[in-house]
Design brief:
The chain has two domains: 78 residues, no CATH class; 115 residues, Dynein light chain 2a, cytoplasmic (Beta-Lactamase). It is 39% helix and 18% strand. A five-stranded antiparallel β-sheet has the order 5-4-8-7-6, with helices on both faces. The protein has a three-stranded antiparallel β-sheet with strand order 1-3-2, covered by helices on one side. A hairpin with a 3-residue loop joins β7 and β8. α1 packs antiparallel against α2, α2 packs parallel to α3 and α3 runs antiparallel to α5. The longest helix is centred in the N-terminal third of the chain and has 19 residues. The protein starts with a helix and ends in a 17-residue tail after the last helix.
């Protein structure tokens, strides 16, 4: 499971950067004479990228490398495992929105698996964006109530509240985003809260990319 998630993240980065090689390696200088961009991942692992000849001009390579490195570290912490040495295989270009949703699902699946949860659901402005597993009809009926409970439990210090139910933990974050994690009764509240906050921090960096670009400002008539 961890290796599949890691390969998916690497493939998405390769598609975004149109790179020749994207890999996790413990020998970053093994390719003598080949320049690569490196980001440490903790321990002996490095994220290594060889760019191609057609890197998109509107993509910040350092920003994307740092974002991917942070996601890989988070996935490894959630799995409580060492990142495997893998190289992204050649794949067809993936639509950016589709790749972004795949990346979000990776975090939701890891959250559900590590929290021993029935599911992990991400909502934005009350609508389901993604989930680790298909959302059952019963939970579809409960989601609106849960989102309202999260808002009602927000404190005067922060607008981001949380709701702790006997069979669900929900956390509000970013702008009207909510993580809903269905649980078995008797679950460890503090453990699930910690995992949800960890994932929410990563999702907060991805969610802005789901929003459409703002309309161009109308040109002002000269005075």
């Amino acid at each position: 499971m961890l290796e599949d998630d890691v390969i998916r993240i690497l493939r998405e980065l390769r598609t975004l950067l149109r790179a020749r090689v994207v890999e996790i390696t413990r020998a970053p200088e093994a390719r003598t004479g080949v320049v690569g961009h490196l980001r440490p991942l903790g321990g002996d692992e490095y994220l290594r990228v060889e760019l191609g000849d057609h890197t998109p001009a509107d993509v910040s390579v350092p920003e994307q490398l740092e974002r991917t490195a942070r996601q890989l570290r988070t996935v490894a912490r959630l799995a409580d495992a060492t990142l495997p040495e893998v190289t992204a295989a050649d794949v067809a270009a993936t639509p950016p929105q589709h790749a972004l949703l795949h990346r979000i699902v990776v975090f939701l699946e890891a959250l559900a698996n590590q929290s021993h949860a029935e599911n992990a659901i991400l909502l934005l402005r009350g609508n389901v964006v993604a989930s680790a597993r298909p959302v059952e009809e019963l939970w579809h009926l409960r989601l609106d109530f849960i989102v309202k409970q999260v808002a009602a439990h927000a404190s005067h210090v922060s607008s981001h509240g949380e709701f702790v139910g006997t069979d669900v933990f929900a956390l509000g974050f970013w702008y009207d985003a909510t993580l809903v994690v269905p649980q078995q009764p008797g679950y460890g509240e503090d453990f699930v809260r910690h995992r949800c906050r960890l994932v929410a921090r990563e999702l907060a960096h991805l969610l802005p990319e789901l929003l459409p670009d703002p309309p161009a400002l109308a040109a002002q008539r000269p005075q």
